[in-house]
Amino acid sequence: MSAEILSGTETAGALRKELAARVEAIRSSQGWVPGLATVLVGDDPASRAYVGMKNRAAGEVGIHSRQIDLPADVPEAELLGLVEGLNADPEIHGILVQLPLPGHIRESRILEAIRPEKDVDGFHPVNVGRLSSGDRDVLAPCTPAGIVELLLRNGHDPSGRHVVVVGRSNIVGKPMASLLLRKGRGGDATVTVAHSRTPDLGAVTRLADILIVAVGWPGTVTGEMVRPGAVVVDVGVNRVDDASTEKGYRLVGDVDFEGVRAVAGAITPVPGGVGPMTIATLLSNTLQAAMALRAMDEGMQG
Ligand code: GUN
After folding, report:
1. Which of 15, 85, 130, 223 is deepest in the core (most CB within 10 A)?
2. How far is the CA of 80 from the centre of ligand 1 (A)?
3. Could you tell me which of 253, 261, 202, 201 has the C-alpha nearest to residue 229?
């Protein structure tokens, strides 16, 4: 058997089209557009590429975007001041500070300074708490929320299925579990979270109807660790040396793609799987934040 390829590029394209239509409807009938600010500290090439893709994608659906680049040695207080300015800026509805930050900046201080209503990453403790309490209106982290959307739109509703998440990061693993446990659309799953200290990982991953792998290490999941017919979502993006390519490297996920493809029922490719869904979800969160902020402002005026 060869698995169905779950194309994030295609599904994200459909989602972005819907978002573009909604943004255009707001612009033409109400005369405003959602605004997203991205903040890049330092010059990590991968982070720069991600932030560039996020801004381009925003522009393509009609969202106003502003990228702020700061040097790697920017003082924490200056970054906090910038966030405060964006919190108060009526043209900006979503704020994203690209992670990781340089070592001298306390990540938690920055994430906690972002106004929760503008926290389109869903990383503020208030939003983390709301998500784990089951709130369905919360801004949820883009990668796990994008994975849920990818599953739903391709006929793999997690409701009632056993989902095994490998990885316990704050960006993917933990919010992934919270989303899948939530009641209602995209949730209602039975969830197991495994991680680097899980003995006999294969014994756990073989239980999965849906297996989501987010550890940042190539080849973590091989064919014999997957139950035949399972749906496999590969969140990893790893550079491996490859002298045959122009850049000298190629991108692979955390899953041994060829080995797992022969066993699984469906699998996401890398690139072209989860990544495009993360970006489309960021745009969707920005629109959601903008609508909620506008409704709040109108409530105060009226
Ligand atoms: N770094 C890696 N993934 C993410 C993400 O989803 N948001 C932010 N802000 N930084 C990241």
Report:
1. 15
2. 18
3. 261
State the residue range of the domain holding 80.
32-115
169 with 240, same domain: the answer is yes
Task: Determine if ligand 1 sits within 6 Å of the CB of residue 12.
Answer: no
Instruction: Assess whether the C-beta atom of 292 lies below 6 angstroms from ligand 1.
Output: no
Q: Is 121 a catalytic residue?
A: yes
pTM of the shown model: 0.98
Would you say residue 294 lies in a domain? no
Q: Compute the Cα dihedral for 102, 65, 185, 132 and give only its sign.
A: positive
- Whether 110 is in the pocket of ligand 1, judged by its Cβ within 6 Å, is no
CB proximity list for 75: less than 8 A, separation 6 or greater: none
Give 174-185 pLDDT, tens digit per residue: 999 999 999 999
CATH number of the domain encompassing residue 192: 3.40.50.720
Indicate whether 189 and 155 sit together in one domain. Answer: yes
